[in-house]
């Protein structure tokens, strides 16, 4: 195929992915009550699943501090078209999150024909694992990272006379940013997999720079979460586990590449 033909093929992959995202966006837009009352505004109420689980944990540990009785803030809209704008933008974000697996699948369909047969064989299941990790990160961000941040920021006061009247845009931005950030951070094992396949990273390098990676992970957790030590630790731990998992993935990739090269050398030696 010529360069123009490749661009034409890429254009149709992008168009199909965009159509899927638009369909999910329209579905989210038409499900306004569920989208906002249950999904978006859920972490703003004390009966949210995460708060109830922490309360049950507190009862088990005889710690009443883990039970959340109320969230001391009010959501407000201060712009004439603010609620309509947030309805449209939030529906698009949800559509993008739901359509991400299909978007990656379309991009993978464009990339995979250019791979060697052994590279396609070794990369089998890439779409599945990328989608699973994205979903796990999204759920972790929505049910763990975002509620902890909202709880901390809602309860933080400089003085009891100051009321927290939070703008709707600020609240939704915090929720969506933290959820999507965790979703993309959870893709670390797949990023390491492709870098290891390209020979750009090795398990020895990852072990050598483990301390540096821990510092970077702490910085990422501090950016994702509010300045609360407990929230940062909760976000840091799964990322550290993903980093250790990525080291093992890099080791497996190198072992398979070495085995394949040895097999090719043995075959070439046999032919000679």
UniProtKB/TrEMBL annotation:
Function text: Part of the twin-arginine translocation (Tat) system that transports large folded proteins containing a characteristic twin-arginine motif in their signal peptide across membranes.
Subunit structure: Forms a complex with TatA.
GO CC annotations on file: TAT protein transport complex
NCBIfam families per record: tatC (TIGR00945)
TM segment ranges: 12-31, 84-105, 126-150, 170-196, 208-227, 233-253
The protein's name in its UniProt record: Sec-independent protein translocase protein TatC
Source organism of this protein record: Hymenobacter oligotrophus
UniProt KW Membrane keyword: yes
Keyword field: Cell membrane, Membrane, Protein transport, Translocation, Transmembrane, Transmembrane helix, Transport
Biological process terms in GO annotation: intracellular protein transmembrane transport; protein transport by the Tat complex
Listed GO MF terms: proton motive force dependent protein transmembrane transporter activity
Alphabetized Pfam families for the sequence: TatC
């Amino acid at each position: 195929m010529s360069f123009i033909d490749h661009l034409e093929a890429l254009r149709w992959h992008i168009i199909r992915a965009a159509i899927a995202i638009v369909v999910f966006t329209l579905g989210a837009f038409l499900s306004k009550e569920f989208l906002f009352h249950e999904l978006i505004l859920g972490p703003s109420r004390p009966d949210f699943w995460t708060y109830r689980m922490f309360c049950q944990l507190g009862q088990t540990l005889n710690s009443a501090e883990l039970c959340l009785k109320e969230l001391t803030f009010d959501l407000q809209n201060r712009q004439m078209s603010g609620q309509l704008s947030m309805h449209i933008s939030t529906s698009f974000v949800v559509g993008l999150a739901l359509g991400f697996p299909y978007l990656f699948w379309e991009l993978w369909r464009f990339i995979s024909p250019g791979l060697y047969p052994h590279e396609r064989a070794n990369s089998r299941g890439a779409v599945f694992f990328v989608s699973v990790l994205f979903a796990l990160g999204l759920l972790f961000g929505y049910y763990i990272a975002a509620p902890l941040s909202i709880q901390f920021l809602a309860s933080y006061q400089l003085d009891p006379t100051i009321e927290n009247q939070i703008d709707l845009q600020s609240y939704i931005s915090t929720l969506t940013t933290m959820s999507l950030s965790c979703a993309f951070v959870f893709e670390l094992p797949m990023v390491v997999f492709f870098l290891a396949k390209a020979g750009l990273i090795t398990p020895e390098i990852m072990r050598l720079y483990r301390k540096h990676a821990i510092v970077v992970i702490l910085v990422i957790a501090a950016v994702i979460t509010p300045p609360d030590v407990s929230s940062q630790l909760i976000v840091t731990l799964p990322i550290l586990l993903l980093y250790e998992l990525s080291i093992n993935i890099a080791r497996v990739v190198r072992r398979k590449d070495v085995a394949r090269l040895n097999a090719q050398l043995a075959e070439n030696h046999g032919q000679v």
